[in-house]
Amino acid sequence: MRGRARAVKKPGFSLSKITNLASCLMTVLLALNLHSLAAQISQPNTEKEPPKNGAELEKKGVIAARSDGEKTPLQPTATGAVPKKTHPTTVRVYVNKLQGWTPLNGLAEGDPASGEKDEDALEPRVKTAEQGLNEEILAHRQAMQGQAEALKQQQKSLEAEQKELDEKLQALGRNASELSAEQDQRRQDVEHSIDRLARIYEQMSPRDAAAMFDVLDMRVMVPVAQHMIPRRISEVIGNMTPDRANVLSQYLAGIRKLSPDAMNRLNSPVDCNIAK
C-alpha cells in the first residue's frame, strides 16, 4: 500500500511549464498588437463621405498630388472616400507608442508643444537664420567699405601734409641758402672795411696810430693790425703802451685768438659798422 501511495503523482503543472506557457501567450499577444498597429498605420482613419457610385468616380477621376510633381488617380476605398495622407507626426507618435517612448515634459502625444515638429516647421527658422546671416554679412561689408573710405581719406590727408612739409623744407632750404649768401657777403664787406682801415692807419704817423690802437676795440685792432704792412705795424707797436702792445703782440703771434663769438659779433650788422 505504501509503495502504491508513493507511485501516485499529484495532478498539476510545474513552474517551468507555467513560465513557458506565459511566455508563449505574451508573444502571441505582442504579435497580435503589432499586426493591429500595422493595420492602423497602413489604413488610417478616413472621413466619412456619402457613397458614390463607380460611374461618377470613373468620370471625375480622383487625383492626388505626389512629391515629384506628377499626378496619379487614387483608387477609391470601399466606402467611396479617398484616404488622407498620413502626417509624419502621427506616424512618429505611433512608433514612439510602440517602442514605449513617452514625452519627458508630460505633454500629450501629437501636441505641437511636445517637441514632435514637422519638417515644414523648421523652414521658417532656416529662413530666419539665413536672413540674419545675410544681414550680418551685409553689415560687415558696409563696415569694411567704411573703413576703406576712412583709410583713403587718411591717405589723402597724409599726402597733403607730406606735400606741405616738402614745401616748407624747400622754403627752409632756400632761406638757409639766402642766409649763407648774406653771411658770405657780410664777411666780404667786413674784410674790405678792415683792409681799408689798415690802409688808413698806414698813412698815419706811428705815434697817432699807436694812440688810436691804445683805445681801439680788440675785435677791430687785431684784424686791422694783421692787414697792415709789418714795418708799419712794428712802428705803431713801438709807440703803444706796454700792456696794449703786449696783448697785440700775443694776438699777432697766434698765442691768443679771438673767440668765434667775437668774430661772429664782428660780422654782425651792428658790429660791422665799427670798421666803417
UniProtKB/TrEMBL annotation:
This protein's record includes keyword Signal: yes
Domain of life: Bacteria
Coiled coil: 134-182
Keywords: Coiled coil, Signal
Signal peptide residue numbers: 1-38
Region annotated Disordered, chain positions: 65-84
Name the UniProt record assigns to this protein: Flagellar motility protein MotE, a chaperone for MotC folding
Lineage: Bacteria, Pseudomonadati, Pseudomonadota, Alphaproteobacteria, Acetobacterales
